[in-house]
Specification:
It contains 17 helices and four strands. By secondary structure, the protein is mainly alpha-helical. It has two domains: 160 residues, no CATH class; 125 residues, no CATH class.
Length: 333
């Protein structure tokens, strides 16, 4: 009798284990990467400036210009340029921001690892692209541009804009809360890659009306899921749990609203930009309705499209006819 019970327990454990393994392997983006993939180069301009004596900076300019030409260029030895750099280093706000970056060093190291891994996934799907260099620096709270794509091979990241949504200085300098909500190292890798994809594939992301634009931007979000296979949609979109819940619960009603208001084929960007840009909410009556909720709809359309089509991530990005995607998706929330 006891033996039979033990056999039954073993069978249940085996069935559970088999089910668990199967469920874990259902992630279509969970792939094995090649071991010889190039590692993206990350340079810390903030450290070389703020860790030294600012009055000795003139002795390092030639060497710094070779490593950090995006920052040190032109007639960088003239008195005005040198004095401007010293003032930047000694600025009390910049000093305080840099010190907080040091305090959160472990968080930044984790974020860097996420960035490095995401670009390895990028190489897997887009092997013909040359990897950019990433430069960390102190922006002096340039909160409108936390990440700057200087050119196809240069990404500038203001570390001081990823110190946590509730970092006191953001409030003191009146950074809007819906903006600082994303100022966290846990979102850093997603934001770098999103901006990089926008820049690198700009010709593949054009639309003349709302529906075409949300599909184009939805392509990016879908591809981000492939580059961050172990992260949730909520994390990748930088939504709060309440915002994600609103999108999921109101998907059908939101889609119907866009149709009823004749927004889907509206070509007036100013009329529909609230659905695809950062803002506190899209409706003052529903405070959990996030700006960029339209992009989430675009992601859902692409998700349906990819279920219906047997194409690769690369082919998806190269598909420029947004209405072809829309029709093939047969999206019905």
């Amino acid at each position: 009798m006891i033996k039979d019970k033990l056999i039954g327990i073993k069978i249940i454990i085996l069935l559970f284990t088999s089910s668990f393994i199967t469920s874990c392997s259902n992630n279509k983006f969970d792939i094995k990467l090649k071991e010889n993939l190039e590692e993206i180069k990350i340079l810390h301009y903030d450290e070389v400036l703020f860790e030294g004596n600012p009055y000795n900076i003139h002795t390092k300019l030639d060497s710094l210009a070779k490593i950090y030409p995006v920052f040190i260029n032109g007639d960088y030895k003239n008195d005005a340029a040198v004095n401007g750099l010293i003032e930047y280093i000694q600025n009390p706000l910049n000093q305080k921001l840099y010190q907080e970056c040091i305090n959160q060093d472990s968080k930044f190291k984790t974020a860097e690892e996420e960035v490095i891994l995401s670009f390895k996934y990028f190489q897997h799907y887009f092997s013909d692209k040359k990897l950019p260099h990433i430069y960390f620096y102190i922006s002096g709270l340039n909160y409108e541009e936390p990440i700057i794509i200087a050119d196809s091979l240069t990404i500038l990241v203001g570390k001081d804009l990823f110190l946590g949504a509730k970092y006191p200085i953001y409030g003191q300098y009146q950074v809007p809360l819906f903006v600082s909500q994303k100022f966290d190292t846990k979102y850093l890798a997603f934001q770098i890659m999103r901006r990089y994809l926008y820049q690198t594939f700009s010709k593949n992301l054009k639309g003349k009306n709302l529906i075409e634009n949300i599909i184009a931007l939805g392509k990016v979000e879908y591809i981000l899921h492939a580059l961050f296979p172990n992260n949730s949609t909520e994390e990748i979109l930088n939504f709060t749990p309440e915002q994600m819940n609103w999108c999921e619960q109101k998907e059908k009603a939101f889609w119907q609203h866009l149709a009823d208001e004749q927004m889907l084929f509206n070509e007036d960007y100013h009329a529909y930009k609230k659905y695809i840009e950062d803002r506190p909410f899209i409706s003052s009556l529903e405070k959990d309705s996030p700006g960029r909720a339209g992009i989430w709809i675009g992601y859902k359309i692409i998700e349906q499209y990819m279920e219906n089509k047997n194409i690769t991530i690369t082919q998806l990005m190269e598909t420029n006819d947004m209405m072809e995607i829309f029709n093939a998706a047969k999206y019905k929330p």
